[in-house]
Amino acid sequence: MDYTRRDFGKLVLAGVPTVGLLDSHVAWANVLRAKPNSKWAGVQVGMNVPYNFGTGNYTTGDEILQRCIQLGVSGVELRAQPVELFLGSPAAIAGAAAPRGRGAGRGAAQDPQAAAGGRAGGTAGQEPPPPGAAGAARGEAGRQGGGRGAGRAELTPEQQAAQRAAAEETRKWRAGVSLDKVKQFRKKFEDEGVLIEIVKWDGIFTMSDDEVDYCFEVSKALGARALSTEINLEGAKRLGQFADKHKMQFGYHGHAATTVEDFETVFSYAKFNAANLDLGHFTAGQGSPIPFVQKHYERITHVHVKDRKLNNGPNVPFGQGDTPIKEVLQMMRDKKWKFQATIEFEVPLPAGGDRMAEIAKCVEYCKACLLG
Q: pTM of the full predicted structure?
């Protein structure tokens, strides 16, 4: 007879001897395993998922959850694609089935769901740049201007028509989504001790008004306290109206070329417009992020934690660059600021390196900074 964790707990509380009750295939670790906990000294250290895992945007929620548990991480910034895949989105299902949809950090033109969000290619800087210098350069190309993606091949009229059709199909599908099923997705995570604190929406700048409302409602149903996307000054003016309407912060992610003035312009548009401040990118392009964090901590949804060198230098292992990771984390701890410190893994893997092992090193580095 098989026993669930709940059954086993009842037996223990009742004083029933448990030796021999467990079948050999039920591991003790699964029965008594503690939930993950990466909240140290009051600071929630989180994970940018599924991006960090290099598995592509259409990774299933179950796989993401398993990896978070393996790393002991209890908070995430979650991209919307795995949620919509769980809900049965035609675009997400197509993305999961397509060979290119499996690649990490693929461009919007290769992403059926991002394409469904609007015009061909999306807004520059809108899709997540892939790890490494080439991706960082691409992310800089159209950081906040609202222009077309740099260096992308023009789509044929047939491809553009296909994207418009996909966008319309997705719009109709989103109009009928049940929030009860969204809550089922949330429950999977919360039952295992992992909180979905931020939801990232690729392609949101070109969505219809009804779809933007949908993004906020789904994010609320997931238990999130904020949404995020890449920064776009023109687009942030419109999205800020929805953020204020829903009274939910929207964090815009900047790159090395994104200035303090860019963020402050976004803040001026709406009370609930905010910053997803990337500590590494900001350091590489603008210098120390500490003055910005001290001044605008109430307008920060979460910080991306990575280490980069100054003067647009490369990503490097934590502790080897110029980013003041330790100082910012300890400031968050001492000031009792509640935004998430979200690890974004963009360090090139060493030859023969294991991604999960390298990410685990980042988690331990943050823990040592907070408890040291």
A: 0.82
